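To: structure subgroup
Subject: Chain for Friday's discussion

All,

I'm putting the inputs and outputs inline so they're searchable in the archive.
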Amino acid sequence: MISLGELASQLGVELVGDGSCNITAVATLQTAASGQVSFLANSRYRRYLVSTQASAVILRPEDGDAYPGNALVSANPYLTYARAATLLNPQTKQAAGCHPSAVVEVTAIIDSTAAIAANCYIGADTNIGPGAQIGPGCAIGQGVTIGADSRLAANVSIADGVEIGRRVLIHSGVVVGSDGFGFAPDQGKWFKVPQLGSVIIGDDVEIGANTTIDRGALEDTVIEEGVKLDNQLQIAHNVRIGAHTAIAGATAIAGSTTIGKRCQIGGGVGIVGHLMIADDVHITAMSLVTGNIKQSGLYSSGIPLAGNKEWRKNAVRFGQLDDMSRRLRALEKQLKEK
């Protein structure tokens, strides 16, 4: 519990109303009760300001006239809400030390303030930094580095030689450093290409559940600082993702592609290999990227959902576009010649 005045002070926002009001939790405008703080970040919910039971609302200056109660005035209500929720819901930390069931190789170095949960394996020459938390059932290979205050949830697998920065959050089921998909054709068969690179993950990265990041073939796969990866992504070998880029679930990025800084990539996007994507590129969901993107901006592909009858007609017409284009150019040429 925290007073509204103290909450405003910690968040660095303007308080309008009773600063002695106690706040215990966050909630939506529709469901909030006394003692809870809510927020208005989307104008479509503005109508709920008159009926909300929240003890305070986080809102923009221009929405202040529509709400007579206690308010925290912010230029970015959603960000302020996120920070308030973090303050009101502090992370529970594991107690420092190694669980008796953990297996730790003798040459591993584990800081005395780090926590290793039950049934973990920590490989030789691995270094786990101050305040790091390794959840139950994690397997960490040889020569891995995990920076200060990073946290691995249950059942994360980190392969040999991976470098993880500070304050990294890795959710359950993630695999970092698995072999890249590299095979050389050999008379109708496949010969496996050794994957000799590693994976380097910068500070303040978050990796969603069941995402896979492959190690490089010769050079490293690199995830730069502040990158946010959703669940069930495939990041292939030698990919580089620029700082503060965010990628939504079920996206697959093929090998040796470089994605710039501050990009936003929607869910289910496919990106083929050996491409360069500029900084500040936004790609909408279910797009297929087959060529370099050299300029920042918003990009889309794919066919929107339609009724099956309409879709079948459009699919046929799509196959006719080249012929129609040729005929149109021929007609234009005839008209010009007249």
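Points worth raising on Friday:
The mean pLDDT is 96.
The longest strand covers residues 36-39.

D.
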